[in-house]
Design goal:
mainly alpha, 163 residues
């Protein structure tokens, strides 16, 4: 049986901590907390938040950190989260993602929302997404990525693996 003392010392739920850190504008604390709990737990916690709190969490995180989180969750959920953000914030986050992930997220959105976000992205990035999104996701064109890594012939294998 819980006593009044137990209720006073009860740890806040993960989603409550996310909301509190975002409401306080504590970007460093929020990023550290998300890193500590991991992307899957952070995703579950974000789903428990109200839409305004979700937006606050995703926009308080750096675009790189938010992109890392978005890349780890299922595409349809990622699209829903990104679609709820202002187009400029959504574009900042998507710009930090790999182009194939950008295409997956944009491809699951309503057309007008997708276009609003693409309009906020760098023209070259938006053109890549528009070109790749024309392919059916189950054919080679829909599965490929236009990004690649190139190294000098003199690069050591260990250095390439570390990179």
């Amino acid at each position: 049986m819980e006593t009044d003392t137990d209720l006073d010392t009860k740890e806040p739920e993960t989603w409550e901590v996310l909301a509190q850190l975002a409401a306080a504008g504590d970007a460093k604390g929020l990023e550290a907390y998300v890193d500590r709990i991991g992307p899957s737990e952070a995703f579950r916690a974000i789903l428990r938040l109200e839409p305004e709190e979700r937006e606050k969490v995703l926009t308080t995180l750096s675009p790189e950190e938010a992109a890392g989180l978005i890349e780890e969750i299922p595409d349809e959920h990622a699209s829903d989260l990104i679609e709820q953000l202002p187009a400029k914030d959504a574009a900042s986050i998507l710009s930090e993602m790999h182009v194939d992930d950008q295409v997956d997220v944009i491809g699951d959105m309503h057309e007008e929302d997708a276009e609003a976000i693409l309009a906020e992205m760098a023209p070259e990035d938006a053109a890549d997404v528009r070109r790749l999104i024309r392919y059916d996701p189950d054919v080679a064109g829909g599965l490929m990525s236009t990004e690649y890594l190139a190294y000098r012939e003199t690069a050591l294998v260990g250095d390439v693996i570390d990179d």
